[in-house]
Specification:
330 residues; seven-stranded mixed sheet; mainly beta; Immunoglobulin-like
């Protein structure tokens, strides 16, 4: 099927600013659509991507799962008559295998992957998966490859501005799934505090005490059933020994578009937004990374799109705010 593969226009100015959900596979401009020969059936991959700090480096975590395919309405007459559509299969100077090797991001020799969501073997066609990062300034390419249609990856890279792709590919079924957007992380200024992205985890069991414990339960899709418990986790950096924090967790109506309009890292909870939890967080005993996790339940929320927001206020410092869109389903 022929689809829109190009990123939004904003990518020309700063690719790292492409927000999650902006680089879609919709058929909005059929004259730029094409079907890659190695996977004519390309679909969206649902992901939850989060950034963490490791010294002067960026640790990217990506949990993923294929999205259920929706059959879009197509205008076959327009597609067949439009002379600007390029049929990549018409290139006769390459064999089929050469074309696939050239265009398939999974065609390279696999390195040892770092997936950390073990799955029971499934009786389905084998699926290759990977997390890819491309530095928007130098073009440097980073990747980690693995097996399976769902799971999670982690990849450590220098701080900077990147295009991220979380992708899966079934050679036998000639199907593929992907999610692409931009992300960045600046170095932490000496003497300042910082917070990681918010990571949503499955409910149940004990609270994790570290990111390594939390990752196997990261939700690739932040859809939560009414009355179902879940966990939220984050890391803090640059706290002083014994420095306590006031934490407020709340929800606002609206999803990613709501975050984008108000500025994800600059906004605070609206005055009338429901507050889920408030507490005083005791300071660390030693200098270093501080991991935090809480279990939540939102039984009174109607189904719909929301933004879960965590505000962290340190005495004498600027408050820190992180957010993650969630969807409540019946």
């Amino acid at each position: 099927k022929s689809q829109e593969f190009l990123p939004p226009d904003e990518a020309l100015e700063d690719p790292a600013q492409i927000a999650p959900g902006d680089w879609t596979l919709e058929q909005r401009r059929p004259w730029t659509g094409y079907a890659p020969p190695y996977a004519p059936d390309l679909n969206a991959l649902e992901t939850q991507v989060a950034r963490f700090r490791r010294g002067d480096s960026l640790l990217v975590v990506g949990a993923f799962e294929p999205q259920e395919e929706e059959q879009p309405e197509t205008d076959t007459r327009r597609q067949s008559m439009n002379p600007r559509i390029v049929d990549v299969r018409s290139r006769r100077n390459e064999s089929r295998g050469e074309r696939q090797a050239r265009s398939n991001p999974f065609g390279r020799i696999q390195e040892e992957p770092v997936p950390f969501l073990p799955e029971e073997p499934e009786k389905t066609a084998p699926v290759q998966s990977g997390l890819f990062l491309i530095d928007t300034e130098t073009g440097t390419h980073h990747e980690v490859l693995g097996e399976g249609p769902r799971g999670a990856f982690q990849l450590l890279v220098p701080n900077g501005r990147y295009i991220i792709g979380v992708e899966a590919f079934s050679p036998d079924d000639k199907r593929a799934w992907r999610d692409r957007h931009g992300l960045w992380q600046d170095p932490l200024v000496l003497g300042l505090a910082a917070v990681s992205d918010l990571l949503i985890l499955k409910g149940g069991g004990n609270l994790p005490e570290s990111l390594d414990e939390a990752l196997p339960t990261a939700m690739p899709v932040t859809r939560i059933r009414t009355g179902e418990s879940f966990k939220a986790a984050w890391e803090l950096y640059g706290l002083r020994i014994g420095e306590s924090a006031s934490v407020r967790i709340g929800v606002d109506r609206g999803g990613e578009g709501f975050i984008r309009r108000l500025g994800q890292f600059l906004r605070v909870l609206e005055p009338d937004a429901p507050v889920v939890m408030t507490y005083e967080d005791t300071g660390p005993d030693v200098l270093g990374t501080v991991f935090r996790a809480v279990e939540l339940n939102l039984p009174d929320l109607e189904p719909g799109e929301y933004t879960l927001t965590v505000e962290i206020e340190l005495s004498g410092r600027e408050p820190m705010v992180i957010a993650r869109p969630i969807v409540i389903v019946p």
